Amino acid sequence: MRVASRTVFDFVRLNGTTAPVETELIYQADDPFAVTMRFHSGGSVATWVMGRELLAEGMAKPAGDGDVRLRPHSGRTLVLELLSDRHATVFRFPATTLRKFLAATHRLVPAGKERFDADAFLSTVLR
């Protein structure tokens, strides 16, 4: 079972201007701690996987100290920073978008009820 949502995030350029980027948010019950985001731009797709708990925490206060960071920007907007060796990519998007998505994921797998199937994970990795 999964939850998926398509939306548009604003990519924030270095000069402060923005450009819309089609974004998919995907949550799968068999990987209950993770959320996948796919960013579609110019025929390319960039995929990032991040913690569901980090996203929930980042709605209220700055969260993440690694390559994924999320923080409130205003009462209605969130800022997502994705850091790699070569780039820092920044997006802004409505907090309601993430709030609704996370609510749907929590209906599927409530917080604290996540289970990790190590055997299934290892069988996938060792194929």
Describe the protein's architecture and organization.
The structure is a single chain. By secondary structure, this protein is of the alpha+beta class. It is built from three helices and seven strands, in the order E-E-E-E-H-E-E-E-H-H. It has a seven-stranded antiparallel β-sheet. The longest helix has 14 residues, at 95-108. The radius of gyration is 15 Å and the shape is globular. It starts with a strand and ends with a helix.
Write the layout of secondary structure elements.
Elements (H helix, E strand, L loop, with lengths): L1 E11 L5 E11 L5 E8 L2 E8 H7 L9 E5 L4 E7 L4 E7 H14 L9 H8 L2
Antiparallel strand pairs: 1-2, 1-7, 2-3, 3-4, 5-6, 6-7
User: What composes the largest sheet?
Assistant: 7 strands, antiparallel
Oligomer: single chain
Globally, the shape reads globular
Strand line-up across the major sheet = 4-3-2-1-7-6-5
N to C succession of SSEs: EEEEHEEEHH
**Runs with pLDDT <50, length 5+?**
none
Q: How many separate helices? A: 3
Whole-number mean pLDDT: 92
**How helix-rich are the residues, as a percent range?**
10-25%
Number of strands: 7
Compute the CA-based radius of gyration: 15 Å
What fraction strand? Answer: 35-45%
- Give the termini distance in whole angstroms: 23 Å
Helix/strand/pairing category? alpha+beta
